[in-house]
Every structure is written in C-alpha cells, then in structure tokens.
C-alpha cells in the first residue's frame, strides 16, 4: 500500500528555520523522508540548526543557506542552491515573518508597517515565483504559507502584523487558483505558539495566556509542523487554497486570547 504521508525523494525549502516553527517544520519534513534546505539571517544559529537536524536524520539531506527573506539576491540564492544540491524543489514553506510594530495604528511607524508587508507578503510571493520558475511550473509541487489567527480576526495588539497575515491568506487563495492543478498552495494560521518570536504575547505567564483556550495550553512548534507535514503530502492531495487554523480552539471562543 502506498504511504501517502511519505515525502521520500522530495526536496523542501523552509524559510526562517533556524528555530521555532520553521525548525520544527524542517524536522518534520526530514522525518517524512524529504531533503530540506533551511534559511535564516544569522549564520551561527543557522549552522547550529542544520547540524542538529542532520544529527537527527541524515546530514546529506540538510542544506543551510544564509538568507534574508527581504533580499532578492538571498531569495534567488537559496532557491538556486537548493535545486543544484538536491535536483528539485517540490515543497516550499514560507515561514519567515516579522512584527516590528505594536498597538495603535495611528501611532504606527509607516516604515515599519511597509517592512512588515514587504517581508510577510511580498517576499512570500517572490519565493513562490522563484520556486515556480526553477522547478514547480514543469514538475508541480506544494506550498504552505505560515499565516496567523491574527489574519482572521481583528485585534488591538498586533494590528499591522494581523493585516499583513490577512493579505497572506488572500494571497494563498489567489495562488491556489492560478497555480492549480499541478501546484497546491495552502496556509496554516497558528495562535500563540511558544517561540522566541511570540514570547511577548505570554510574558505574564503561560497559565494566564492559555486560560482562554479550550485546550488550556499554548501551542508548541510541533503542533504546527505536524499539520504542515500533512498539507504538503499526498494525503492532502485534494486540498488547495485552504487556511487551516491550528489555534487550540481560541477562535471558537470569539476572542484571540493573548493576541
């Protein structure tokens, strides 16, 4: 019987993968048999992550490429090196995201807002374009964009970030329509996950932050990685244009909890 969850023989590129959700996704894809390129800006953290990932699987199936998602040269280098090293690019995970501004939008620095959209939305489209031209247009593939529940419901804490993730969710739907049937494009929308990136959202304690959640805990990076692994596998072969909430049930309560 064919294992629809296996990714053996496929190649993935995961952006922003030196830690947190991106690292967990890379580890999950390796476990399923894929070869994986990881990117991040900080070379020391990136190399340490690659070494750890390789130790848990096969070092030959892990490639680290120092890259800033906001740099066209970096994006092109990461895609080019992935295809040169592994011979394909079947899976693209757009995980890189930034959130440099908080609070009242009337006080927001417009430069920071522009940078947020450039990294969270424009860079994602740029990566998809590169993957399409380098491999997926001819051979097909699967893309997953890491969005957020903040893109599905308004909040007063991280509104610029939420607006960028709402745009990313719409971008996911547009890409799914335009790139089918050979390329599937989906998204995941996490709530608060215990990472360095989200630490400010549970700074007053995990118990307080998780109290509104029906499942009474915050997310772990592996919670997101497990869903992403499914979405890029053949087991999700009839899913595209979907944004999967991985939120501990918080949206079902009508609030965003700590977000």
UniProtKB/TrEMBL annotation:
Gene Ontology MF, one: oxidoreductase activity
Species whose genome carries this gene: Pseudonocardia hydrocarbonoxydans
PANTHER family according to UniProt: DEHYDROGENASE/REDUCTASE (SDR FAMILY) MEMBER 4 (PTHR43943), DEHYDROGENASE_REDUCTASE 4 (PTHR43943:SF2)
UniProt superkingdom: Bacteria
PROSITE patterns (UniProt xref): ADH_SHORT
Keyword Coiled coil among UniProt keywords: no
UniProt keyword annotation of Repressor present: no
Gene behind this protein: fabG_1
Organismal lineage: Bacteria, Bacillati, Actinomycetota, Actinomycetes, Pseudonocardiales
Gene3D superfamilies hit by this protein: NAD(P)-binding Rossmann-like Domain
UniProt KW keywords: Oxidoreductase
Protein name: 3-oxoacyl-ACP reductase
UniProt record similarity statement: Belongs to the short-chain dehydrogenases/reductases (SDR) family.
NCBIfam families: PRK07231.1 (NF005559)
């Amino acid at each position: 019987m064919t294992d629809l969850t296996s990714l053996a023989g496929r190649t993935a590129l995961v952006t922003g993968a030196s830690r947190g959700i991106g690292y967990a996704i890379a580890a999950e894809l390796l476990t399923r048999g894929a070869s994986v390129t990881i990117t991040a800006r900080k070379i020391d953290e990136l190399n340490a992550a690659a070494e750890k990932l390789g130790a848990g699987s096969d070092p030959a199936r892990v490639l680290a490429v120092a890259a800033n998602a906001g740099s066209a040269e970096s994006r092109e280098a990461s895609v080019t090196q992935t295809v040169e090293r592994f011979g394909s690019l079947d899976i693209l995970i757009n995980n890189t995201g930034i959130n440099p501004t908080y609070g009242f939008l009337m006080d927001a620095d417009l430069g920071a807002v522009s940078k947020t959209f450039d990294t969270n939305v424009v860079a994602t489209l740029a990566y998809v374009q590169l993957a399409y031209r380098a491999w997926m247009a001819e051979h097909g593939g699967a893309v997953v964009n890491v969005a957020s529940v903040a893109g599905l419901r308004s909040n007063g804490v991280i509104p610029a970030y939420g607006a960028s993730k709402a745009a990313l969710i719409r971008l996911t739907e547009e890409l799914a329509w335009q790139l089918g049937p050979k390329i599937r494009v989906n998204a995941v929308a996490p709530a608060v996950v215990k990472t360095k990136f989200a630490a400010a959202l549970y700074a007053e304690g995990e118990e307080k932050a998780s109290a509104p959640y029906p499942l009474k805990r915050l997310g772990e990076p592996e919670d997101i990685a497990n869903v992403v692994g499914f979405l890029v596998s053949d087991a999700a072969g009839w899913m595209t244009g979907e944004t999967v909430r991985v939120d501990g049930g918080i949206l079902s309560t009508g609030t965003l909890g700590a977000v």
